[in-house]
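Standup notes, structure subgroup. Blocker cleared on the nicotinamide-adenine-dinucleotide input:
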Amino acid sequence: MRAFVTGAAGFIGSHLCEHLLACGDDVVGVDAMTDYYDPSRKRRNLAHLLGRERFTFRRGDVLALPLDELLADAEVVYHLAGQPGVRASWGRQFALYLDRNVQATQCVLESARGARLYRLVYASSSSVYGDAEAYPTAETLCPRPVSPYGVTKLAAEQLCELYRTCFGVPTVSLRLFSVYGPRQRPDMAFARLIRAAFTGEPFPLHGDGEQTRDFTYVRDVVTAMRQAALGPWTGVANVGGGQRVTMNQVIAEVSELAAPVRVLGTPVQDGDVRHTAADISLARQAFGYRPSVGISEGLAAMVLAEREERWATEVAELAAHAAVPG
Ligand code: NAD
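Run returned:
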């Protein structure tokens, strides 16, 4: 398959590109390298990809790139570019969320209308549900986001549905539930928690820690994306990890795997939901989705990756020190 990936330098996008290449696909990745978090992390994410045969990277904003031209050769588009983060989406920052989540998606869909795509896979979010009325939550439940971020993800998802029904653009929107794994965005809970375990700095825990999440390992997510791209089905489906875990359980696991975490109790943040849990039966039926990585295995992989990165940084610093004359 010839794949076009937006947000290729991001956390999930870089894993997706690796997975597609491993499956034998040709990949064109684009990314604006936004500064939502330190862009040097995105350059490191890309280091896993640049120079690989069958991978091409183009730096640029989806809103400014010549998408008609870029999509002319593509068979599948994976649209992951966006402005993530629930808490930062309040206030004046909302304009960025509108641009990068809503406008950018409409731009991709307009170009997709004229392209001969087999599939367009959009990275939607569990945040469209807000505080859901039932758990595990099925796609049939009415979405009621409780954050501006969730509102923009829902708007973009609705645009995908609109272009699918009006113009036949073959879209699949996957509502991803709390994705984790190596290279996770530094603002996300697991990345902050593991950092706290290694540095000894306190971990600010919002609320009582009994909030539950359906955490999904990044390898399962990128596998689901490609399965959805190749299958015959279009529409909106949940992609969750299949397991509900409290933050207190996660803190205990990380303390065991890395070092005891010092927890600092803080109030619940606006926009945070109390629970999430995905009903994944539709994804199972539609494209054979089956999550394969449980929380203990996934956390162990994340802790190992963090340990290796810290060692590599220490070794590089020691080498640089030793190289200084005198
Ligand atoms: P990320 O910030 O690491 O990746 C997003 C990438 O998109 C960034 O590298 C950014 O530079 C790029 N980007 C933003 N606007 C752009 C634009 N206009 N043009 C080109 N590039 C642009 O975030 P992530 O966690 O990898 O999330 C990827 C996608 O998945 C996002 O759309 C996010 O909303 C969605 N999602 C993520 C999660 C999660 O748990 N991480 C859950 C649900 C949905």
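Discussed briefly. The chain has a mean pLDDT of 96.
Next: hand off to the docking folks.
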